[in-house]
Amino acid sequence: MSRDPARAATQFFGGRVCLDFANTLDWRTSNDPQELIPDYAALLSWSERRGTLPLAATRKLKARSASSEAAAAMQKAYDLRRDIWTISDALRGGRGADLGLVNRLLAAAPRQPDLVRQDRGYRHALAGIDVTEPLWPVLWSLTALLASDDARRIGCCEADGCGWFFVDESPNRTRRWCSSEVCGNRERARRAYAKRKGSA
Known about the structure:
Residues 153-196 form the Zinc finger CGNR domain. The protein has 200 residues and is mainly α.
C-alpha cells in the first residue's frame, strides 16, 4: 500500500475482489489506519475502479449517495470487511473459516445474476436498485475463494503496519509483501538503514 490515500485506493494487490475490499483500510495494523472508503460515494468509486458494478448501476446508485439507506449500507460494508479480516486471518493461520458466519452472510445476499459484457471484461448484471449491491460481488468473491484451493494461499503483507491481504500465487508460496515495489522496497530500505545504523 501507499502512504498516499488517493494512490492506495487505486492499488489492487489482493488478487481477489474480496481481499482487495479487505484492503480498503490502509495501514490496517498500524497506530494510524487510513480509511479508503469513508462514505458511500467512495465505495461506489472503489467498485467502479475495481470493475465490480456495471456503469449503469453505478450511475443510479450515485444519485442515492447522500441517503440514509446509503449510510446504513456503509455500516454493512464495514461489517463485511471486518468479517473478511477475521476469515482471512484464520485461514492464513492454518485455522478453518467460521462457516456459520459465512453462511449467515450468504443468506442475506441474492443469487448471482447473469453476466453482462463491459469494455473488455464482464460484470454481474446488477440493476442499481439496492444500495447494498456494491457488497454483493465482494461476498460472492469471498465464497468463491473459500470454495477453492486458494483459501490455503492467503497471506498478509509483512511490512510493519500494512496488514493488506493477498492470494500467494508464487510457486513456493514465498510472497512476503502486498507489493514488492511498494511495501517490499520500503521494508528493504528500512532494514538496510537499520543495519547501517547498527554497524555505525
